[in-house]
Amino acid sequence: MKRLLITLITSLLLISTAKAEDSPNVIIIVADDLGWADVGFHGGEIDTPALDRLAREGTELDRFYTTPICSPTRAALMTGRDPMRLGVAYAVFLPWTNAGVHPDEHFMPQSFQAAGYQTALIGKWHLGHAQETYHPNQRGFDHFYGHLHTETGYFPPFGVQGGKDFQVNGKTIDPEGYETFIMAAEAERYIKERDKSKPFFMYMPFIAPHTPLEAPQELVDKYSDVEFNREPARSPSDTTHTISKVMLRPDARPMFSAVVDAMDQAIGRVLTTLDDEGITDNTIVMFFSDNGGAVYSVGGAYNAPLRGGKGETFEGGIRVVSMIRWPAKIPAGSKVESVMSVMDVFPTIAAAAGVTPQNRRKLDGRNMVKAVIDDEYIPLKGTLKFASETPIKGNIAVTAFNEEWKLVQEIKEGFLSADVTNYLFNIKNDPNEYNNLAQKHPKLVARLAKEIHDWRMLYPVNGTRSNLVPPPGWRAPKDWAKSMRKLEDLNDVPARGMPPEFAKKSLDIMHGENGRLIYDCEPKPWLAGWCVENEK
């Protein structure tokens, strides 16, 4: 009996070990504000051998779309859901924002945890910092090494609005060196010291190449003589370059190039570590930028031939550099032509890894494994829609598009009116958005505009909006890790708000296009505007 028990335990351990060896590791790397033409394999002049290697050894996602700005893209990545539903569509989480992604939302690493993966976040979070319910360690990450915010700087003291923002699992640290290389060293350490009996899921979002731009001196010197002969972005961003020249400001392109080069070196170190550990073949590595390159004067990015850039819903703001490498499964040097979005990452990566998503609420993203691995063309059903209200409050950029047609709306809200400029493109034949066909197809403009209108009605009334400065007199904490309100100091359930429960549905209907009082509740015309919760 004892021998039988030992044999049974041994068999179970062997099965468990075999499963761990079969399950692929996952690394998702996200750049911050990288342009379409800022990589070598798109003809860029910046040295990006690591990114070029990923494209060469994997598959390029040729039409991969994100939101035009940071936090919405990260929210969509983590949840597989539309940021409009989440209340994170128009603007990012700023230091004075007492908000984050709803704790009821299920995050991708939580599903990987449930499947036996060890999970780590190394880099920038930017999905909530005011309460512990928003902290990465509460959202599926066993290990968090990095920043809660953006714009921490690339060299010490890594501060935000005067407060320290560099931590390991809730405890402040004071590392020395260049931030991009510090992150690379931590990723190397984590991969080498991981529990080798389990697969790992690692999310590595860089702050590079986001402003304010800084780089090691040797890289600054390397690109000091770069001449930036940029084509116009054909968008409002062009105005900033004219102003910059008049004010005799130096071109941001050389420093931007140095920052991108450093990021590529960091990614190269991660890829080399996978090689050294002998796990390259069975590790899924995905890379993309959180939005299009920042082509305004201080940003330094380059998106040509795409139109526009960060904060805009032209292609340059939402169509980004992206690729996936998985040598064991994905043919090297291939290209995915199907339209994909950041909302598709969760269901796609989970399916590829054999992980069952544990979400209760319905995903907006699609499982695109057959497109990525089998090179099967998967048509886009319906439209994709994105929005931004950054940086000017009341200046809103929105878009709705399918595989053939794309409507871009620039909306300027005033006290007594809203001015709307429509751009309609046949995106299939005119991917770089040269020919505005809005006047030729008014019915199509009206139909897509109605889709945008109805979609915007999903937004929670207290979702993020563009507020570039804090409330008058607001002060930042000295240490962001210590300022977070701990779980034991919070109530067990979300606050119900001012209206009594019996009045919420009626008030929700009355709010109409001003947004939703009831979270994730979609208005239905056939129910006279009453809403239905969006669950599986």
**Percent in strands:** 15-25%
Instruction: Look at the structure and give the CATH class of the largest domain.
Output: Alpha Beta
Arithmetic mean pLDDT: 93
CATH homologous superfamily caption of the largest domain: Alkaline Phosphatase, subunit A
Helix fraction bin: 25-40%
Q: What class do helices, strands and sheet pairing give?
A: alpha/beta
The major beta sheet can be summarized as:
11 strands, mixed
Instruction: Tell me the CATH topology of the largest domain.
Output: Alkaline Phosphatase, subunit A
Instruction: Please indicate the count of domains.
Output: 2
The total of helices stands at 15
**Overall CATH architecture of the largest domain:** 3-Layer(aba) Sandwich
Radius of gyration in whole Å, from Cα? 23 Å
End-to-end C-alpha gap: 47 Å
* pLDDT < 50 stretches: 4-18
* Tally of DSSP β-strands: 19
Shape: globular
Can you tell me about this structure?
The protein is an alpha/beta fold. The protein folds into 2 domains: 372 residues, Alkaline Phosphatase, subunit A, CATH 3.40.720.10; 37 residues, no CATH class. 29% of the residues lie in helices and 18% in strands. It is built from 15 helices and 19 strands. Strands 1, 2, 3, 4, 7, 8, 9, 10, 11, 12 and 13 form an 11-stranded mixed sheet that branches. A 4-stranded antiparallel sheet has the order 14-15-16-17, covered by helices on one side. A hairpin with a 2-residue loop joins strand 5 and strand 6. Helix 6 packs parallel to helix 9.
